Amino acid sequence: MLIVGILLLVFLAIGMPIAYAIGISGFAFFLQHPELPMTIIAQLPISQTQNFTLLAVPLFILAGNLMNASGITSRLIKLSSVLTGHMRGGLAQVNVMLSTLMGGVSGSAIADASMEARILCPAMIERGYSPGFTANCTAWTGLITATIPPGVGIILYGVTGEVSIGWLFAAGIFVGIFLTVVYMFTVWVISGREGYKAERARASFRECMQAIVENIWALLFPIFLLVGLRIGIFTPSEVGSFACVYAILVGIFAYKELTLKKLVQTLADSVLDVGGIMFIIALSGIFGYGIPFEKIPDLISNAILGFSTNRYVVMFIILFILVILGMFIDGSVVILLFTPIFLPLAIKVGWDPVHFGILFCTMITMGNMTPPVGLAMSAVCTVLNVPISEYIKDMWPWFWATVLSIGVLVFFPGLVLALPRLLF
């Protein structure tokens, strides 16, 4: 597997598409083991996708695209402004709140960061916010979006590690809200230093209620997901189907903006989005076959436990490795390939799989916001035409705020698990 891993890194370094890099490097494993029948290579991509729970991934991607096509984004921007625009650093606070609200709609950090970079960031720069601060605020708050259900990464972890998706969704709500508070405080501190002012006067109670009522269907969406899972109406796959139907009904009858033309375009866009991620999932079956075959989880587990058996030391070693991996490799790939490696080790030293899973997905997503090739960072900097050097200069308050937040969540697992235990 060493040669396979080196080939994967080389292919990614030369710019080969991720799915092909995974598939071709995985094929090299079978060339090293002629005793294995080559027919397995054709069978693995098919068997990898024949998982009923995995249906949740394309369904939630479609549901998120349908919600966006229904005009939900403009309404959420208005609600975010009403709730936080009066605070110091007004538009930046709106940026943070919008990412939180979008968590129940898109579930993708990169998609959220790209959307906000196009819609909200030009206005921030016009108001005098520095491009580096604007880019960091937009990229890092995408971490909230990926954590609040229905995050695609969390679903992939649940499917791969056979962990309850309902429990993961419930845990993700607290972590997402916790990160929201941390990032709003970060904006407040930076805005005081840089002189970024409030965007508007404090909204009246009536104006707040009007904005909430206007967005009630989007706000209720994650609640309906958890309630449906809790009382047994839906399985994780079925709740994805419900999400699509819900989004269509809201777009047609509540917001009246989802036309037939928009629906067709949304379906076409979703086919591309789903095709890309499912192609990666399928070919990861070829690459992942060699991991248990050569007992890679046992080798890594023994190496880490040989350094220390303390559960906290083991956790921080794993999290450090995940941040490095997330800097270079797409988060979905890291989750698919490394959940079977690190989850057994985490359970072995005494970590709850739900608690570990939330931290696991959060740290991988964090790699998207950091150099050298973080995908969310690259997307935002490309849209705003911000040099990476300027992004890095303003990155450190956000980086350390996130690291400290993760540290709190590591040492206080009861915070993460309180809501899942209450609901389930």
Q: Output the structural class.
A: mainly alpha
Q: Estimate the strand proportion.
A: under 5%
Described by its quaternary structure, the protein is: single chain
Evaluate the radius of gyration: 21 Å
Number of helices: 24
* Mean pLDDT across every amino acid position: 85
Biggest sheet descriptor: none
What does this structure look like?
- With 424 residues, the protein is mainly α.
- The chain is built from 24 helices and no strands.
- It has helices at residues 2-13, 18-32, 39-49, 56-69, 72-84, 90-102, 109-119, 121-126, 131-140, 142-147, 152-161, 165-194, 205-214, 216-230, 236-254, 260-293, 296-307, 311-328, 331-348, 353-366, 375-384, 388-393, 396-411, 413-423.
- The relative contact order is 0.15.
Summarize this entry quickly.
The protein is built from 24 helices and no strands.
Describe the secondary-structure layout.
Layout: H1 2-13, H2 18-32, H3 39-49, H4 56-69, H5 72-84, H6 90-102, H7 109-119, H8 121-126, H9 131-140, H10 142-147, H11 152-161, H12 165-194, H13 205-214, H14 216-230, H15 236-254, H16 260-293, H17 296-307, H18 311-328, H19 331-348, H20 353-366, H21 375-384, H22 388-393, H23 396-411, H24 413-423
Helix pairs in contact: 1-2, 2-16, 3-16, 4-15, 4-16, 5-6, 5-13, 6-12, 7-9, 7-21, 9-21, 11-12, 11-19, 11-20, 12-20, 12-23, 12-24, 14-15, 16-19, 17-19, 18-19, 18-20, 19-20, 20-23
